[in-house]
Amino acid sequence: MKKIYIAGPDVFEMDSIEIGQRYVELCKDYGFIGLYPLDNVIDFNQAKQKIAKDIFEANKNLIDECDLVVANLNSFRGKESDSGTIWECGYASALGKKVYGYLFRETTYLEQFHEDEILAHGDTYCDLNGKMIEDFNHPVNLMIACSVEDIVIGDFEKVLKKISNI
């Protein structure tokens, strides 16, 4: 059975353990083995930076072990996907592993911005800080949009349905 690394900011939810258990069960239902970051055993009785390094190494090892990644690319603490999730996707992609993402919204990256958050300069759009906003008709930053196999509009299970037919 293929192993899926389950990436995303779901690990920051108050019910993150239960979410992970549901995702792992869904993986089983579709014929995969789910690898959820919070399944790692970490010693939390040490310095915070050591804990952080242990979490990093454990998650990196799970990505090394997996066959593919399914990532929650929904916006997290702003308009961008979770930076840790993006690192995991990039690392997996660099290893030659297939990465699939999912979003709950159908809008492009530019469409996430409200009218009062955009300054137009001809054909270029900028945010209120004067930084250009990507406009490539992708739902996320072009580097992630172009490096994943597919971004499914829906949830984790919808991705599993799609990849179980591949």
The description of the largest β-sheet is:
5 strands, parallel
Tally of contiguous helical segments: 5
Q: Output the structural class.
A: alpha/beta
Distance between the termini: 14 Å
**Shape, principal axes of CA atoms:** globular
Query: What low-confidence regions span 5 or more consecutive residues with pLDDT below 50?
Result: none
Across the major sheet, the strand order is 2-1-3-4-7
CATH topology name:
Rossmann fold
Give me the strand/helix succession. Answer: EHEHEHEEEHEH
Radius of gyration: 17 Å
The residue fraction in helices comes out at: 25-40%
- Total strand segments: 7
Q: What percentage of amino acids are in beta strands?
A: 15-25%
Number of domain modules: 1
CATH class: Alpha Beta
* The CATH architecture: 3-Layer(aba) Sandwich
Q: Round the mean pLDDT to the nearest integer and report it.
A: 96
Chart the SSEs and their pairings.
Blueprint lengths: L2 E5 L8 H14 L3 E3 L12 H18 L2 E5 L10 H12 L3 E6 L15 E3 L2 E3 L15 H4 L4 E4 L2 H9 L2
Parallel strand pairs: 1-2, 1-3, 3-4, 4-7
Antiparallel strand pairs: 5-6
Summary of the model, kept short:
By secondary structure, this protein is an alpha/beta fold.
Task: Describe this protein's structure.
- The protein has 166 residues and is of the alpha/beta class.
- The chain has one domain (3-107, 140-164): Rossmann fold, CATH 3.40.50.450.
- The protein is built from 5 helices and 7 strands; from the N terminus they run βαβαβαβββαβα.
- The chain has helices at residues 16-29, 48-65, 83-94, 142-145, 156-164; strands at residues 3-7, 33-35, 68-72, 98-103, 119-121, 124-126, 150-153.
- The strands form 2 sheets. Strands 2-1-3-4-7 form a 5-stranded parallel sheet, with helices on both faces. It has a two-stranded antiparallel ribbon with strand order 5-6.
- The chain starts with a strand and ends with a helix.
- The model has no long low-confidence stretch (mean pLDDT 96).
